[in-house]
């Protein structure tokens, strides 16, 4: 069960004018489950994305990058995105690239556009060839049920080890006009995005210039998907795509405008919500942890320390056990690689409880106070470095028996 | 149960002339267990050590460093080492430093030397004050049973979550004379030494000049304790001490001699054995894994990739399950931070089985061959980068349910 994350209600997910979604059960890995998603875009749409920095980046990621790069040079817009689960098409060499390209070609023919106007995505097992024939065979069924109100099914179609679909909507008023936005995400393991998450798609009905959208997607990812980790394993397939359909009334053509600021803020907030859903549904997660590192010299060192805490198996198992064995947090801070850190000035808080004062145990800290916070399902670890005014926040979950069970049995 | 690591037999552990060992049950954390160890050295002994790079280094580590530094300036040799378990005396501020110094003063008075001639060590829970009164009260009992053949009891006295004591002996012939050496180590969690392991002590009866010993201990640590990881958590208390008692016939005063080379080789081999014992007894370990990264541009990038694989929870759980989900290894290689790595040239082997060829699945690889190797208790993962002739090896273990259980219940 995901930590304090109710299953989204289909009726609450707002259609976004200019994008239609359809799914199929193509039997990629297992029969009788939604495993293919097609998102069809209006010709007015702009699309921008950020991708994994993993050197073993999957074949579809390579194809996406090439098609988006082409976009900046040519005039043919992206017309559709296609996602399959059950197979990551990563570690698959030239055959994998051919499979991703064949998928684009097949969908392009069905939609009457060029293969370069399609963006392909895959998620699932690595180092196995994509069953491209089954994927292509499933495309007509997905096209047959393309509708604007299919977001809930779309969120379901991209799930792998997720226990529940992840989707949310929002609106923002800009100059008296409403922008509607809906996003979906997936991922529960191999989560430490280094550009974006496993898979995330967010559509807005504003009209946004390509270079402005490129800026906005990076800004949103840096404050959301790039601040989460479950197990420190950066995936081969991480992709976060921002789609501006251009079907609504609002238009943003410049980063230096109040319209941009308002829209980017709303997109970032919704991205954060989608990113948090991934952590709340982290494999085996029982706790949602916010790690806030403050008073650092720069953001980089704050992030280093936050990730060091978030990745420590000892910290994560202590939180699973609700055991305030908080010296493990100090150890993780100490080996984070901030080599001139003066630990004698450091303060550590668990929610409102002051645990470590000037590098040692706070004389007024009582074990029962730590215990009380540790039993909560949502906990903030706050570290104050006393050496500057930079800060960074990372979100993560605990490490439980179920994480081991899920990943020991993933392929069975 | 440790992986293929029989419990050492007391009678097989060779006394080393010039060092006597005694233990006590001081009730530091729990009653009725050996938790204090004293090692008394001959006045001819030289001592050198490497310590954790954790910024939260424990109070006893700070005192050790100060006393060893004093050694290089003054003439008073180190006369004894004292180790307690049950409390790490880390994250304890000024009170912790005072406790470590009080321990040295008390032992010095009992042995008739200066406090600066004592090296203190602690291991156990972080962020709790050391019960120094109980520790000091236990010292006379430890001194009362000081003998040269107490290595097995010494190894037992420094255990925490270890399931079995770790100790080994060796001899090496140098110019027709025998050097005898015996070492002990401890540690099973919070293991990713960055200078040395949790605790390791190796005594040799040769006479070795201080600057030569300083060189030898670094060389041995870099090829042993600095190449192991269980959970990536670098401890606050890591210490590896090399003691040359000077009581034997062999003398080494220069690094540039065949005698040095022979002795350093033997010390390194025994250090490796002690380091492997830690991995074999890793918390919850069911597999002993050797990760060999070859054909790299430099050792640094080989180590980065080896540690990335060794720390991946997804790789570790797959090995626990004997599931050849080997794409996870490729993903870990891909995010190791070697940014210009050409994955299209990379080859991956599991023992003798060629899994990935030129970055993709080897067409001749059969799942049942991977399965066969995965079921073994000892496995070598070999990665060939095809970009140079540097290499590095890291030893690690898998991640099991028992790791979570042990660390969720550590303090109970």
TrEMBL record, chains A, B:
The entry's keywords: Acyltransferase, Amino-acid biosynthesis, Arginine biosynthesis, Autocatalytic cleavage, Cytoplasm, Multifunctional enzyme, Transferase
Any one GO CC term of the record: cytoplasm
Listed GO biological process terms: L-arginine biosynthetic process; ornithine biosynthetic process
Active site: 197 (nucleophile)
Record-annotated site: Cleavage: 196-197
Subunit comment: Heterotetramer of two alpha and two beta chains.
Gene for this chain: argJ
Pfam families to which the protein is assigned, alphabetical: ArgJ (PF01960)
Biological role: Catalyzes two activities which are involved in the cyclic version of arginine biosynthesis: the synthesis of N-acetylglutamate from glutamate and acetyl-CoA as the acetyl donor, and of ornithine by transacetylation between N(2)-acetylornithine and glutamate.
Pathway the protein takes part in: Amino-acid biosynthesis; L-arginine biosynthesis; L-ornithine and N-acetyl-L-glutamate from L-glutamate and N(2)-acetyl-L-ornithine (cyclic): step 1/1; Amino-acid biosynthesis; L-arginine biosynthesis; N(2)-acetyl-L-ornithine from L-glutamate: step 1/4
Domain of life the protein comes from: Bacteria
Listed GO MF terms: L-glutamate N-acetyltransferase activity; L-glutamate N-acetyltransferase activity, acting on acetyl-L-ornithine as donor
Gene3D superfamilies tied to this protein: ArgJ beta chain, C-terminal domain (3.10.20.340), L-amino peptidase D-ALA esterase/amidase (3.60.70.12)
Site residues (Involved in the stabilization of negative charge on the oxyanion by the formation of the oxyanion hole), renumbered to this chain: 123-124
Localization per Swiss-Prot or TrEMBL: Cytoplasm
Similarity section: Belongs to the ArgJ family.
InterPro entries: Arg_biosynth_ArgJ (IPR002813), ArgJ-like_dom_sf (IPR016117), ArgJ_beta_C (IPR042195)
Catalytic EC class: transferase
Binding residues annotated for substrate, in chain numbering: 160, 186, 197, 283, 407, 412
Protein name (record): Arginine biosynthesis bifunctional protein ArgJ
NCBIfam families attached to this UniProt entry: ArgJ, PRK05388.1
EC number per UniProt: 2.3.1.35, 2.3.1.1
Enzymatic reactions: N(2)-acetyl-L-ornithine + L-glutamate = N-acetyl-L-glutamate + L-ornithine; L-glutamate + acetyl-CoA = N-acetyl-L-glutamate + CoA + H(+)
């Amino acid at each position: 069960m995901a930590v304090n994350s109710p299953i989204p209600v289909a009726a609450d997910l707002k259609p976004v004018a200019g994008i239609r979604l359809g799914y199929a059960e193509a039997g990629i890995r297992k029969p009788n489950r939604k495993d293919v998603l097609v998102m069809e875009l209006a010709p007015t749409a702009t699309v921008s994305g950020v991708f994994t920095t993993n050197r073993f980046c999957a074949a579809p990621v390579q194809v996406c990058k090439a098609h988006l790069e082409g976009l900046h040079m040519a005039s043919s817009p992206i017309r559709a995105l296609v996602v399959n689960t059950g197979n990551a098409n990563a570690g698959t060499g030239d055959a994998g690239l051919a499979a991703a390209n064949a998928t684009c070609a097949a969908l392009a023919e069905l939609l009457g556009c060029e293969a370069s106007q399609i963006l392909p995505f895959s998620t699932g097992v690595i180092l196995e060839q994509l069953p491209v024939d089954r994927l292509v065979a499933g495309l007509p069924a997905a096209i047959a049920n393309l509708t604007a109100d299919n977001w809930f099914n779309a969120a379901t179609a991209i799930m792998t080890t997720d226990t529940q679909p992840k989707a949310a909507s929002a609106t923002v008023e800009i100059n008296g006009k409403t922008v509607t936005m809906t996003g979906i995400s997936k991922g529960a393991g191999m989560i430490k995005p280094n550009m974006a998450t496993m898979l995330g798609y967010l559509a807005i009905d504003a009209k946004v210039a390509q270079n402005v959208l490129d800026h906005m997607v990076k800004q949103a990812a840096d404050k959301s998907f790039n601040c989460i980790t479950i197990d420190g394993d950066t995936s081969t397939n991480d992709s976060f795509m921002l789609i501006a359909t251009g079907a609504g009334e609002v238009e943003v053509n410049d980063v230096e405008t109040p319209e941009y600021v308002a829209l980017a803020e709303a997109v970032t907030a919704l991205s954060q919500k989608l990113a948090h859903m991934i952590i709340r549904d982290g494999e085996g997660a029982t706790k949602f942890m916010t790690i806030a590192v403050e008073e650092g010299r720069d953001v980089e060192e704050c992030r280093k320390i936050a990730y060091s805490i978030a990745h420590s198996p000892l910290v994560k198992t202590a939180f699973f056990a609700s055991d305030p064995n908080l010296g493990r947090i100090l150890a993780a801070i100490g080996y984070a690689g901030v080599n001139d850190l003066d630990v004698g000035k450091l303060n550590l808080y668990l929610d409102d409880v002051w645990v470590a004062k000037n590098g040692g145990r706070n004389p007024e800290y009582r074990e029962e106070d730590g215990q009380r916070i540790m039993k909560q399902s949502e906990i903030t670890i706050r570290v104050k470095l006393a050496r500057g005014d930079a800060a960074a926040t990372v979100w993560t979950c605990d490490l439980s028996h179920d994480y081991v069970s899920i990943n020991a049995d993933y392929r069975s």
